[in-house]
TrEMBL record:
Subcellular location, record wording: Cytoplasm
Range of residues in the leader sequence: none
Top-level lineage group: Bacteria
Function: Catalyzes the ATP-dependent phosphorylation of N-acetyl-L-glutamate.
Pathway(s) of this molecule: Amino-acid biosynthesis; L-arginine biosynthesis; N(2)-acetyl-L-ornithine from L-glutamate: step 2/4
Pfam families, per database record: AA_kinase
Class of this enzyme: transferase
Identification of the protein by name: Acetylglutamate kinase
GO molecular function terms noted in the UniProt entry: acetylglutamate kinase activity
Predominant place of localization: cytoplasm
Length: 259
């Protein structure tokens, strides 16, 4: 039988609130089989930036990462957010190993070339070292990735955490049955973003286009869904978007993505 692997991405909002953080750590720790956690931290990075007098700039859900902003995201994602999660998971008996894409050369990216807009030190993923990752999983370790990558020539880069999770799922999905979970602070993809009761149980590309045209899908949900469809097109078996309860496998609101 083909081995499975679960890749769970948690959004920055879940790291902000103790009850949500606890729910996500509990749910993730209890998941069986090989698993990987990828975390964001965009809200925290923006807050720390502001406190340091650096105004955060976001375009289409991506941070314009100049040299000073890169220092902030390395400190916040690779430091505070990553190590907090690792310690919490260790306390729950989950053998978490904190990583960035530079560690063991796991995720190499290419600095996005400046076109009409210069995103600065933002990386598009070129290669995930699936063999090394599989070695860690087979040793019983649980990788916990921040959204940092490197170019292989000494430069750290900032990559959207949804994209990091999708690229890991695609790379591992070549050998295993990969399930990708996007956990965030809403019950799923909503038909009307203002109505928390309007979770869409099954979302395909046709409905996505329809909701996009009506303006019901906006902001960070656009890159999240683009990453989700892209992952399914490139061999990931299942993609889900929902709240932390999604990880407990209990019935409740969430969205399953289909092509
Ligand atoms: N139709 C929609 N359903 C759910 N959320 C939506 C929708 N349209 C826009 N959003 C927004 O997208 C956000 C999720 O994207 P993002 O902030 O990037 O997630 P994350 O917390 O994973 O980083 C939600 O918090 C919500 O404000
Ligand atoms: C290039 C880019 O935009 N990187 C993201 C990485 C963090 C992230 O994705 O965090 P959330 O999942 O909490 O939004 C950023 O700096 O905001």
């Amino acid at each position: 039988m083909q081995k499975t692997v679960s890749i769970v991405k948690i959004g920055g909002a879940l790291l902000e609130e103790e009850a949500l953080l606890e729910a996500v750590c509990q749910g993730f720790s209890a998941m069986g089989g090989a698993k990987i956690l990828v975390h964001g931290g965009g809200q925290q990075a923006s807050r720390v930036s502001q406190a340091l007098g650096i105004t955060p700039k976001m375009v289409d859900g991506r941070r314009i990462t100049d040299a000073d902003s890169l220092k902030v995201v390395v400190m916040v994602y690779g430091g505070l957010a990553n190590k907090t999660l690792v310690a919490r998971l260790q306390a729950l008996g989950c053998n978490a190993l904190g990583l960035s894409g530079a560690d063991a050369g796991l995720i190499r990216a290419r600095k996005r070339p400046p076109g009409n807009l210069d995103y600065g030190f933002v990386g598009d993923v070129e290669h995930v070292a699936a063999d090394t990752l599989t070695t860690l999983l087979d040793a019983g370790l649980v990788p916990v990735f921040s959204a940092l990558t490197h170019d292989g020539r000494g430069q750290l880069l900032n990559t959207n955490a949804d994209t990091v999770a999708a690229e890991i799922a695609v790379a591992l999905g070549r050998e295993r049955r990969a399930r990708l979970y996007y956990c965030f602070d809403k019950p799923g993809v909503l038909r009307q973003v203002t109505d928390p009761e309007s979770t869409i149980p099954l979302l395909d590309q046709r409905l996505f286009r329809e909701l996009l045209e009506r303006g019901e899908i906006a902001a960070g949900m656009i890159p999240k869904l683009t990453n989700a469809f892209h992952a399914l097109e490139r061999g990931v078996s299942e993609v889900y978007i929902g709240p932390p309860t999604l990880l407990e496998g209990v019935s409740g609101p969430f969205t399953k993505i289909s092509l």
